[in-house]
Write the C-alpha cells for this entry.
Amino acid sequence: MASETQSKYIADLCVLKTKEFKEVKELLIANEIIGADAEIVKSAQTIAEITHALTDLQASKFIDVLIKTKEPARGTSYSKKRIEKVTAILEDIKKDIDAWDFPNANTPLNYGKKAQELTPKVLEAVKLLNNPEIAPETRQRNQEIFFREVAKAIYDKTYDMNAFDMDIEHTKGEGIDDRYYGLAKVSSNSVSTGAVS
C-alpha cells in the first residue's frame, strides 16, 4: 500500500495536474501502472481508495507520471462568470439570514433548523465553484470566502438576536473559527480526488 506521504502527494498532484477524477484513473491505466488492481481503480470513488490499492512502487511510478503531466489550461473568463453567480447566491443567502426573526415573544428561534434551510443554496454555490475548468487555487480561495461569509452572517445574526433578547447592548463575541479553510480545501479538491465534500 502507498505510504501516507505518497498518498497526500498524489492527491495534491492530481488536483494540480488533472481537471476531473476520471482523468486520474485514465492516467493510471494508460501508463500501465496497475495490473491486477485495474478493477479496483476503475470502481474507485476517491483518490484514497486508489492509493490504498497501489503498492509503494506503483505509487512512486504514478507520482513520476503526474510530475511529467502538463497542467491543463483553464480560462479565466469562465471562472469569472461562475464567481459572479456565486456572489449573487451569497447576497441572497445573507438576505435570508437577515430576515430571521423570533416566531413570537415566547418561542425561541431554532437557529440550527434555519441554517439547515440554507443548504440547497450553499450546495448550488459549491457546485458552481467546483467546476474542473476553474483553477484549483481559484476554486479553493473563492470557497473559503463564500464559507466564511455565510458562517459570519449566521454568527452575526444569531449573536445580535440573542444580545438584543438579553438586553446586552455593547458586547462582542469571538466570532467564527477558521474551519472554513479545511472545508474549502476538501470541497475544491474533490473535483480531482473524488472526496466527499
